[in-house]
Amino acid sequence: MTDSDGPPRAVLITALVVAIGALGVVLAIATTRHHANPVVVAAVPAPHAQDPACGALVEALPQRLGDYTRAALVQPAPVGAAAWRPAGAADPVVLRCGLERPADFVVGSATQMVDRVQWFEVSQDQRSTWYAVDRPVYVALTLPRGSGPTPIQQLSEIIDRIMRAQPPDPLRN
């Protein structure tokens, strides 16, 4: 084999390194764009979203909830809303503060205590929404199936620290 049979070995190695580097850049951009995509949070009636308790809660929210990372929201975003995205294309965790009382929360409804916060669950297709019902404003946390207990546990600690507890009252809006 002579040198005239093809490009020099150094050129081939350089081309291979450049191609691998370009592939790495493309993958990094694709990953960054997925995480940079803001989360759409639908507007729902939230008559108490401007309440100082909601402002304090949103201010205290962490950047991470277990395997979920805080995500930007599509603007204009509802007041009192926040979201966290997992790695990959799974659904986000969404928090909303200052909502109206959930329609299914009536006298005698079962609640669950998580770290000193009483939650009322409303299940939907592939997700469930948990409402903190023992605080001065309702806080909703929508969890995709398979999210595990970490998001609700971490947020319960923050809610308990930020908002005073009060007896749940299914008659309060």
List its traits:
DUF3515 domain-containing protein; 173 residues; 8 strands; 24% strand; alpha+beta; elongated; 29% helix; 2 domains; 8-stranded antiparallel sheet; Protein Transport Mog1p, Chain A
Annotate the secondary structure layout:
Blueprint: H1 9-36, H2 52-60, E1 64-65, E2 68-71, E3 81-86, E4 93-99, E5 112-114, E6 117-123, E7 127-132, E8 138-144, H3 150-162
Antiparallel strand pairs: 1-2, 2-3, 3-4, 4-8, 5-6, 6-7, 7-8
Organism: Mycobacterium cookii
Protein name: DUF3515 domain-containing protein
Pfam family, one: DUF3515
Quick overview of this protein structure:
With 173 residues, the chain is α+β, with helices and mostly antiparallel strands. Helices cover 29% and strands 24% of the residues.
Tell me about this structure.
Helix content is 29%, strand content 24%. The chain contains 3 helices and 8 strands. It has helices at 9-36, 52-60, 150-162, and strands at residues 64-65, 68-71, 81-86, 93-99, 112-114, 117-123, 127-132, 138-144. The radius of gyration is 23 Å and the shape is elongated.
Q: What count of domains describes the coordinates?
A: 2
CATH architecture of the largest domain: 3-Layer(aba) Sandwich
CATH topology of the largest domain: Protein Transport Mog1p, Chain A
Quaternary state of the chains: single chain
What is the percent of helical residues? 25-40%
Structural class of the secondary structure composition?
A: alpha+beta
In terms of DSSP E residues, the strand content is 15-25%
Poorly predicted regions are: 21-35
